[in-house]
């Protein structure tokens, strides 16, 4: 399997409230890798396996979006996902985005360490198959976009998570 690599640069924009990008920069003590996206050929199986291991030091995932997100999912996803897959997306907290070329399934972990810095994204891209000159099929890079439609859900969940960290910090006794 040929390795694929893509990079996106995120920058903070002037807002009145502190953004999750600013929080990352402060806790990371400067710029750095905020998250890594890991591709899966079967995101449902991958997540079930990861969740099985959560109790023994695996990964915790960001909270799922509200049920209304999944009620409207069939309309957004079209016929790419079966009703059963949509139900699995809701059960596992998977976000779904689609562009004119394909579909992106994605979920984010909570930050890996004890600070709100690096986290992982598990993705599966559906569609966008093309053939090279030799007749070999492969998936076009960036298939389904980069989850632009899910950014607001991601940022909401990160900000909610950061609020829990702030609450813990305020209620924890000082050393």
From TrEMBL:
Its cofactor is Fe cation. Keywords: Iron, Metal-binding, Phenylalanine catabolism, Repeat, Tyrosine catabolism. GO terms for biological process: L-phenylalanine catabolic process; L-tyrosine catabolic process. GO terms for molecular function: 4-hydroxyphenylpyruvate dioxygenase activity; metal ion binding. The keyword Repeat applies. The keyword Iron applies. Residues 1-110 form the VOC domain. Gene3D superfamilies: 2,3-Dihydroxybiphenyl 1,2-Dioxygenase, domain 1. Its EC number is 1.13.11.27. PROSITE patterns: VOC (PS51819). It is an enzyme of class 1 (oxidoreductase). Pathway: Amino-acid degradation; L-phenylalanine degradation; acetoacetate and fumarate from L-phenylalanine: step 3/6. Belongs to the 4HPPD family. This is 4-hydroxyphenylpyruvate dioxygenase. It comes from Kalanchoe fedtschenkoi.
